[in-house]
Amino acid sequence: MSTQAFTQGVQLGNGVHMPWLGLGVWKSKEGQEVINAVKTALQLGYRSIDTAAIYQNEEGVGQGLRESGVARDEIFVTTKVWNSDQGYESTLQAFEASRKRLGLETIDLYLVHWAKPATYRETWKALVHLYKEGHVRAIGVSNFQIHHLQHVIEDTGVVPAVNQVEYHPQLAQKELLAFTRENNIQLEAWSPLMQGNLDHPVLSQLAAKHGKSAAQIVLRWDIQNGVVTIPKSVTEHRIRENANIFDFELSAEDMSLVDSLNQNKRIGPDPDNVPF
Hints:
By secondary structure, the protein is an alpha/beta fold. The protein has one domain (about 5-260): NADP-dependent oxidoreductase domain (TIM Barrel), CATH 3.20.20. About 40% of the residues lie in helices and about 15% in strands. It has helices spanning about 5, 30-45, 60-70, 90-100, 120-130, 145-155, 175-180, 200-210, 215-225, 235-245, 250-260; strands at about 10, 15-20, 25, 50, 75-80, 105-110, 135-140, 160-165, 185-190, 230. The strands form 2 sheets. Strands 3-4-5-6-7-8-9-10 form an 8-stranded parallel sheet. Strands 1-2 form a two-stranded antiparallel ribbon. The longest helix has 15 residues, at about 90-100. It starts with a helix and ends in a 17-residue tail after the last helix.
């Protein structure tokens, strides 16, 4: 597969290019496991890596970036500020700590990890400051509902470039997706493969039709819905398979079949009741 497939992407609201497909490293163990996953992905052609302070693997991600041999300016790196570090000054400090662990001068995308009620609005102001100072190329949020997005836009006049949320066939988030499209916010899917719960007749039928896996069908559905996706894996086979989604297309009927699986069913926490 050519690297060109991996560089296909979307232009964010501020003009920065973000690839459609990235490697997520949630639960990838710090040290050799995450180093190898990042190196493998980059050597296969991936150009986007997504981590977070709470994953406790930023150092390994940084080492994997350096050992990959891929030029820094070819890679899109995302990390996030955790809830316990939220607030204006503490977010600025958390950013410096993440930047040091990653070994990077500039972060491509920095996100507020959750809309922690007492602090997310001040945290967003800190991200706006980091952006204006040129320390990050783009800023965004994660797990924000429509009302959270409205608040930070009203407070600062700055629209998040990205909203990374739980998004998969059983949680299609249609109202949120429509709002983000209307406001030029790029939706990004975490847990796109429903933590491996892909055993469904519709997905099996479409996989057989296209000669693909159920996972590849879901990831293709993401992209055709205009949603950036970051499947997590630490094995070369899966990392390679997850990327093999640029040589086929789902028909309108196929897309409707996947849409029909929606149950508004969450695997992760409710963003309006953050338990941490």
